Queue: 3 jobs
Job 1
Amino acid sequence: MPIPIDPRKKPADVKIHVKTGTGVDITWADGHSSHYDFSYLREECPCATCNDERGKKEAFATAAAPGSSPFPALPMFKPKPRAQSASVVGNYAVSISFTDGHSTGIYSYDHLRTICPCAECAKAFRSAPF
Ligand SMILES: [Zn+2]
Ligand SMILES: [Zn+2]
C-alpha cells in the first residue's frame, strides 16, 4: 500500500491511550489534531465483518418501516468497548484489540483522517453525496 502523500492523511504524532482508555489522539502533518474514543473506533471498524454488519443494520432499518414492527425500537444496553491492546502497523495504520474480543480492525491513517469526528473533517472528507 503506498503511503498517502496528502499531508492531511500523514500523521505527525500518534498517541494511543490504552491504559487510561481515553482513546486515540493523532496530530496530522497539516497541523490538525484528531481525537477518537475507542467506542467510536469500534463502531467505525473497517474490517469486512463490521462492514457486513453495518450493511445489515442499514438494510434492517430500511426494512423495518414505521408500523411494520410491533415492538418499539429500544436501544439495547451494551457496555462501551474499550481497547485491550493496540499496536502500530508499519507506518500506515494502527491495529486495535477491543475488550469485546474484536481484534481484526486495522485502521489506516487514511481511514482515520476520513472518520475524524470533527465538523471540519466531516465537511472535507465525508460530504460526498450518497
Ligand atoms: Zn471489525
Ligand atoms: Zn478533524
Job 2
Amino acid sequence: MEIDFSKASFKDFENVSGMDAWKRADLFKDYLDYLNNKGYLNYRLVSTTGCGPEMEIITDKNEKPKSLVSFVSNDYLGFTQHPKIKEAVIEGIRQYGTGAGASPAFGGQFSYHEQLENKIASFFNRDSAIIYTTGYTANSATLMSLLQKEDIAIVDMPVHARVYEGCQSTNLKVFLHNRLDILEKVLKESQSKYRTKMVIVDGVYSQDGDMAPLDKILELCRHYGAYLCVDDAHGVGVIGETGRGAMEKYGVTNEVDIITGTFSKTFANVGGYVIADPNLISFLKYQSRQHLFSATSTPAAAGILKGIDLLDEEPQWKDKLWDNINYFKSGLTELGMDIGNTESAIIPVKIGDAATTGEAGRLLLKAGVYCNPIIYPAVSKKNARIRMSVMATHTKEQLDKALNAFEYADQKLHISKSLSNL
Ligand SMILES: Cc1ncc(COP(=O)(O)O)c(C=O)c1O
C-alpha cells in the first residue's frame, strides 16, 4: 500500500492493511527518515542536562549538544531543580532504598506511599486517595474498573488520550469542546438508559490551555444524575488562589466525584492520583488491575511530599509563573500570533497545517528555541500548532529570545494572523 509521506501522520501507520507488524515498522521507519531529512523530527531529542528553561540538547548526533531555551517541560514551577525537593528525594532514597520491590497489594506499600495518599487527599481537603505509577494509568485504570458495558462515559472531545483508553469497555459519547448545550442533550438522552453516567473533562486542556467551566458542568451533572470526573494535570500549581487548580477557581473541589491528576508536572516527579469517597477508593485499591499488579512509585516520591508543602510555603513561584505567562502571551499577541483562549501556562501558537508547523519548529530550533510542534492525531488535521509550557524559572531574556525567534519564523513563513482576524 502506498502512503504519501508528505500528507501522512503517525496515525496512518497504526494499522496498514495487508502489512504484518514488522513490515509496518519498516514502512514507518521510512516515514521517520523522511521527516528527519526535512528537519521536522524534533521529537525524542536527547537532553544532556535536567528539565529547565534552558537545556542542552543533542540536535545533531555529529555535533556537541546545543544550549536551547526550552518550552517543553510541564515543570511549571521549576520544582525539578528546587534544592529542598532534591534534598527530600535523596533523604527518601537514604531511608527506603531505590525501589518499592512489589505492587502495593503484595508487599510494595510503604509508609511514604501512605503519607502521599493522605497528603494529596488533604491537599484537596478530601478524605481518600489512591496513587498510581503514572497519571496516565491513574485515569485509564480508574475508568476501566468503574465503567462497564451497562454504563456510559460522556467525554469532552479534546480530553487527553488516557480517557479514551479507559473507556474501551463502556459506552462512549463525545461532545464538542465545552459545548454545554450538546452535553445537556447527551445527558438527557442517557438519563434512563445507563446505570453509571460519568462526565469526564479536563480542568485545563493539554493542547489549548483553556479550561472547562466546571461549575456549570457540575450543575448539569447533578441535574441529570451523572457523576463528574475531572483531570487537572495542568491546572494544579498554576490555577486558583492557592494553586489547587481549576476546581478551586470554580469552587467545586468538595463536590467533584472523582479528581484525577499527576505528580509529573507541577510536583516534579512521576506518578498519578485519584481522589474520591473512601469506599470508591477502597474499591479501586482491590479492583483496579494496573494498581494491583504493578509496582508503585519509588522512594524518590518523598520529593512529592515536599513539593506539596512548598506550594503553600513558597507562593512566589506561582506569582513568578503568572508574570511570565502574561509577559509571553502579550509578546506573542503583539507579534500577531494566534494563541487561542489559553488561561494557563500552556501557550499554543496556532498555525494550521502540519507542514508549516513542522517548518516553524525547525526554524525555532535553529534560532535556539526548543518547543513541540503538535500535529494530527494529537490535534485535528487543520489545527496544528507549536505548543509551549511556560515556567516560573524562565527569565525575561529567555522569553524575549523566544519572541525574537517567532518573529524570525514569521518573516519566513507568515504564520502570524492579520490582527483583525484574531
Ligand atoms: C491532562 C493529562 N492527564 C494526564 C496526563 C498523563 O500524566 P503522566 O505523565 O503522569 O502519565 C497528561 C500528560 O501529559 C495530561 O496532559
Job 3
Amino acid sequence: MTNLLIHSMTEFWDIILGTLHAAEVRNIAEIGAEFGGTTQHLAAYARATGGSLTSIDPAPKQVFLDWAQATPEVRHVPLPSLEAMPSLGDIDAWVIDGDHNYYTVFNELRIAGELAQRDGRPLLAFLHDVSWPTGRRDMYYAPERIPAEHRHPYSTDRGCTLDRADLLPPGHGFRGDGHFAWALHEGGPRNGVLTAVEDFMAQGRAAGTKLAYAHVPAVFGLGILFDAGAPWAEAVANLVFPWHDNALLATLEQNRLRNYLAVIEWQDRERDRLSA
Ligand SMILES: C[S@@+](CC[C@H](N)C(=O)[O-])C[C@H]1O[C@@H](n2cnc3c(N)ncnc32)[C@H](O)[C@@H]1O
C-alpha cells in the first residue's frame, strides 16, 4: 500500500550521513528505533567506520528486535532514554527520535551535553520532529512516564490540525488512535520539541557554550544541533545550512500536511455518515 505520510528519519539519510562523515563520528547513540529503518543505516555506517551503535527504545517493533539480535554492531538498550543515557560514554553523535515532548527532549539534550563535557567531545545531535505537529505541542507515548508537574493536560482520542492551537473533538484530526497522546494546547512555555531545543540553546549561551542549529523544514522537521567550536563545525555548517529554513521545502511540507489532513477529514466524515 502507498505510504500516505512519509515520517521516518531515513528520509534525511543523505544529510545525516554527510554530517556523520564531516564530523568524523565513530560512536552513535540512537533514541527511538521503532522498526529500525534509520538504525539499519546507522549500523552500516558504524560497520564501515569501525564505530559503534547503541539504540535506545523501551518498546520497539518486533522486526527491530529480531534484526538487532542478529546484528552484532548494534547494542539495544530497552529503556526510556532518560534512564539509559547516563550510563553511556564516548558518544560522538545522538540521533534523537523517541518521545516528542519538551520534558523528554530538554533532558535528553541536557544529559547529552553533560556527557559531551565529561568525555571531552563536542556535542552533535540530530533531532526529529522539530516542526509541526510536535515543534510547539507535546506528544506523549507514555504520559505516565512524564512527571505530572512537567506534563501538559492531554488527550489520547482528540486529533490536531493546522492553524488551531486546541484539539479537534474525539475521533477527528491527526491523532494517535491509542498509540500516543497530544497536549490539549499548542504553544506557550515548555511545550514541544523545538521549544526544548531553543531553551537548551539559551541555557548553553548563558553558560558560554556556543551551539549552532540548522532546521530542515521537511518530513516533520530535522534539527541539527552542534558545538560551534568543534574542529569540524565549519565543515558541518557548510553541509547543513543550505537546508536551513529552506522556503521551498517549508512550502512543500505545508502542502503535504494539508493534503494528508484533508484525507483524514474525508475519512472521518465518511465514517460519521455511515454510522449516522
Ligand atoms: C517515531 S518512532 C522512531 C522512528 C525511527 N527513529 C525512524 O527514523 O524510523 C519513535 C520510537 O521512540 C520510542 N520511544 C518512545 N519514548 C521513548 C523514550 N522515552 N526513550 C526512547 N525511545 C522512546 C517508541 O517506542 C518508538 O519506537
